[in-house]
Structure formats: structure tokens, C-alpha cells
């Protein structure tokens, strides 16, 4: 099929209606109507998804404040790298269960997944509150909360994809601001509670906040399309589509490299010689700018196409990562933190919407988003450890800011390569034609 005809095929699939119940319809006869792209029910799905982003990716983005407390107070005998695996396993588990979770959403088990996710997350936080050993925190806050976050998050791209088409990027971008805001709010709440009520009750209060906000989600979230009961968890046909495969490659490399600056910017600031009070503000600055970056670029993406925004964003993020190596002043660090935070916002919020756009049928969105995240989970798991290993190697041969050269080069190279694969995705879909995609 000519790449330029693919969008016409997608549009023709989404302008029809269901004419048979799923039990009677074959895989090829299920017909889908076009999304409403607005209205109270549609925007309530954005509200519900915002609450989920707040308590999944937002909670994971906040792990730095937990790591600092565990390293200095609760688990002083455990190394920082060992403790970091608690946060690492959270992200890995959230992503790796994507294929089964995405397929279950397509099959209609939306609220079942939401309830399982709420239970696991809240239970994990409550168990973490009584944990005093590393293995206890690894199982409770790492495994339990990570799995719960996965069950909770995968309905988001599906429900937004079913209710929005023309404004899909904008809707998902608004929902994704929940994770940026949580990355600012949760650390502040935890730090203030620690000095007042101690660790145990701080974790319990966070768990209760999660329970309350996610309760709002349960009351309004819903699917618009008839469930697709038949079909595998893993869509082999999708892996025969060059554009989809190329984008999975781009997304995987993005997940490998994009978190390195977030993980090491504070440490780098200390090496450069920036005072500690300013260094601690660099990560909140990045998260705040990421919040803006998840709305503005997504709005433009609805006008010009998600891939047309995503491709230059990943390449620019790679260039900024390389520029970290040249930063030697407070002003340069702040400028790069602002720039990288803004660019990374669109990189994080656009992929689910782009995958939805590359999916010919709306009742396959959950499956294909889940597959992409499952594959990318392995890259996300090793990204920061590779950056850390390169940093350790740099410390053996260099001093000062030069110890970070290899780490920044790794992040930059991986991101630029991901951007080039994003361009390949675009080429496989529409060729070199200047058009919305």
C-alpha cells in the first residue's frame, strides 16, 4: 500500500458504526464509529486520566525524594545504586505488563483493571509504611506499587483514543500534566510530613491521597466502544507494519536516554560546583517546564501531526543532553534544565497518541500501546544503570565535570538515534511529503 494512502484508510475505519454484538462479529466485521472529540463525557475521561497520570508516572517521577530518605536515614547501609532499583523496578513493571493490560482494556475489563491497580498501589504504600528492611521496600514500594501503576495507567490511552481523534494529542497532553504536577507536589508533601508525623504516617497519608484521587477516576472513567473479546494479547500483524516497528524502536531508545538527565542533573550540578540549595531546585524546574511541554506542543501536534513534533523534539533533546557536558555555570545549568524539561514534556506525552494514530482501528489501541511499552520496558530498565556505569568509568580516568562526558554523550547519542528512527516512521507512513502525520 502507498504510504500516503494510510491516513485515508485510518479515516475510513473510524467513520463507521458497530453493527453486530461482539459475540456474533468476526474480527474483520467489527465496525467502529468516529469519536465525538468533545462533550462532558469525553472531557471527564481526560479528568480521570489526569488522576491516573498523577498517581502512576507522577509517583514514579517522585522517587528521588524517597531515595534520598532511604539512603541517608532508613537504609544507610544500602548503597544508592541498590536503593535506586526500587524506583527502577517500578518503571519496569509498569511498562512490561503493557501487552496483557492493554488487551484487557480492549476486551472491556476496564474497571476490573482500575480496581486491581488501586488496591495494589494503596496496599503497597501501606506495606511500605511498616517496612524497615531493603527487601521489604523492594517488594512493597517497588513490585506492588509498580504493578498497580501498570494496571491503572494502560486504560488512559485507550479511553482518550476512543473519545478523541482530532484533539487526541491535546487531550492526552492535558492528562499527562498530572504526572508533572505530581513530580512537584508529592516530594513537597512527603518532605513536610516526615518532620511532623514520621515516615510511617507519611506513607499512609500518601496512600490515602492516592485512594481519594483515584476514587474520582473510578466514578467517571468508561469505554465508548463495544469490547473486543476475541483476539490475542500480542498482535503479530502489527509487527509486520514498518511504521509501527520503526516507532517502537524510536520510543524504546527515547525511554533509554530521556531519563538520564533527570536522574543525574543534581549530581552533575554538585560536580560542577553549583551550591547545594540551587542544585536541589534543578529537578523541580525540569518537572515544572515539562508540565508546560506536555500541553503546548501537543496542541500544535493536533494541527500539524504528532510525528512532525515528536521527531525534532527527540533530536533536540539529544542535542541538549550533549550540551550538558559544556555547562559550567549556574545560569547554563538552569537554562538547560528549562529547555530539556520543556522538550521532554512532549516526548513523554505524545507516544501513546502517535501509536493510536498508527493503529487502523480504535478497538486495537490498548493492545498496540501495551505492546510498545512492553518492548520499551527493557530499554527503560537499563538506561540509567548504563549511564551510571559510564559515570563510574569516567571517575577512574577524569576529574571535575569531565567525569560526566561519557554519560551525556550516551544519552545524547541514544536520543538522536531515536529521533532518526522517528523520521523513518514518518517516511514509511507518508514518504517525504510535507503533510500532517
UniProtKB/TrEMBL annotation:
Positions of the Major facilitator superfamily (MFS) profile domain: 238-437
Output the lineage of the source organism: Eukaryota, Fungi, Dikarya, Basidiomycota, Agaricomycotina
Keyword Transmembrane helix assigned to the entry: answer is: yes
Residue spans crossing the bilayer: 42-63, 83-102, 114-132, 138-157, 169-189, 201-221, 242-261, 307-327, 333-358, 370-391, 403-424
Q: Entry's PANTHER family?
A: MFS-TYPE TRANSPORTER DBAD-RELATED, MONOCARBOXYLATE TRANSPORTER
What is the name attached to this protein's record? Major facilitator superfamily (MFS) profile domain-containing protein
Query: How is this protein annotated for GO cellular component?
Result: membrane
Instruction: Specify the protein's topology with respect to the membrane.
Output: Multi-pass membrane protein
Among Pfam families, the record links this protein to: MFS_1
For this chain, the family text in UniProt reads: Belongs to the major facilitator superfamily. Monocarboxylate porter (TC 2.A.1.13) family.
List keywords of the entry alphabetically: Membrane, Transmembrane, Transmembrane helix
Species name? Psilocybe cf. subviscida
Single GO MF descriptor: transmembrane transporter activity
Q: Where in the cell is it found?
A: Membrane
Q: From the record, what ranges are coiled-coil?
A: none
Amino acid at each position: 500500500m502507498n504510504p500516503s494512502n494510510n491516513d485515508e484508510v485510518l479515516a475510513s475505519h473510524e467513520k463507521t458504526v458497530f453493527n453486530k454484538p461482539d459475540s456474533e462479529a468476526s474480527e474483520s466485521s467489527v465496525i467502529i464509529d468516529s469519536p465525538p472529540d468533545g462533550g462532558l463525557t469525553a472531557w471527564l475521561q481526560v479528568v480521570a486520566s489526569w488522576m491516573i497520570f498523577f498517581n502512576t508516572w507522577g509517583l514514579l517521577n517522585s522517587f528521588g525524594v524517597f531515595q534520598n530518605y532511604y539512603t541517608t536515614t532508613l537504609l544507610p547501609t544500602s548503597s544508592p545504586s541498590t536503593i535506586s532499583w526500587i524506583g527502577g523496578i517500578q518503571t519496569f513493571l509498569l511498562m512490561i505488563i503493557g501487552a496483557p493490560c492493554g488487551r484487557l482494556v480492549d476486551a472491556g475489563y476496564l474497571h476490573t483493571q482500575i480496581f486491581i491497580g488501586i488496591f495494589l498501589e494503596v496496599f503497597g504504600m501501606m506495606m511500605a509504611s511498616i517496612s524497615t528492611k531493603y527487601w521489604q521496600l523492594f517488594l512493597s514500594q517497588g513490585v506492588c506499587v509498580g504493578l498497580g501503576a501498570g494496571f491503572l495507567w494502560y486504560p488512559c490511552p485507550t479511553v482518550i483514543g476512543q473519545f478523541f481523534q482530532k484533539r487526541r494529542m491535546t487531550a492526552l497532553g492535558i492528562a499527562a500534566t498530572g504526572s508533572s504536577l505530581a513530580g512537584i507536589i508529592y516530594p513537597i508533601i512527603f518532605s513536610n510530613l516526615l518532620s511532623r508525623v514520621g515516615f510511617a504516617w507519611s506513607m499512609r497519608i500518601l496512600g490515602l491521597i492516592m485512594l481519594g484521587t483515584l476514587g474520582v477516576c473510578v466514578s467517571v472513567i468508561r469505554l465508548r466502544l463495544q469490547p473486543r473479546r476475541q483476539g490475542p494479547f500480542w498482535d503479530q500483524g502489527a509487527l509486520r507494519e514498518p511504521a509501527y516497528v520503526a516507532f517502537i524502536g524510536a520510543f524504546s531508545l527515547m525511554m533509554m536516554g530521556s531519563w538520564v538527565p533527570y536522574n543525574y542533573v543534581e549530581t552533575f550540578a554538585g560536580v560542577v560546583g553549583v551550591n547545594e540549595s540551587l542544585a536541589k531546585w534543578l529537578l523541580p524546574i525540569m518537572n515544572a517546564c515539562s508540565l508546560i511541554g506536555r500541553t503546548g506542543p501537543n496542541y500544535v501536534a493536533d494541527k500539524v501531526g504528532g510525528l512532525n513534533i515528536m521527531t525534532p523534539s527527540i533530536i533536540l533533546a539529544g542535542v541538549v543532553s550533549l550540551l550538558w557536558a559544556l555547562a559550567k555555570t549556574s545560569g547554563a545549568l538552569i537554562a538547560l534544565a528549562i529547555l530539556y524539561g520543556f522538550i521532554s514534556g512532549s516526548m513523554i506525552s505524545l507516544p501513546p497518541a502517535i501509536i493510536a494514530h498508527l493503529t487502523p482501528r480504535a478497538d486495537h489501541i490498548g493492545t498496540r500501546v501495551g505492546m510498545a511499552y512492553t518492548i520499551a520496558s527493557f530499554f527503560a530498565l537499563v538506561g540509567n544503570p548504563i549511564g551510571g556505569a559510564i559515570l563510574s568509568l569516567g571517575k577512574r580516568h577524569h576529574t571535575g565535570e569531565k567525569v560526566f562526558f561519557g554519560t551525556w554523550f550516551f544519552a545524547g547519542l541514544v536520543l538522536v538515534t531515536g529521533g532518526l528512527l522517528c523520521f523513518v516512521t514518518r517516511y514509511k507512513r507518508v514518504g517525504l511529503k510535507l503533510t500532517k502525520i
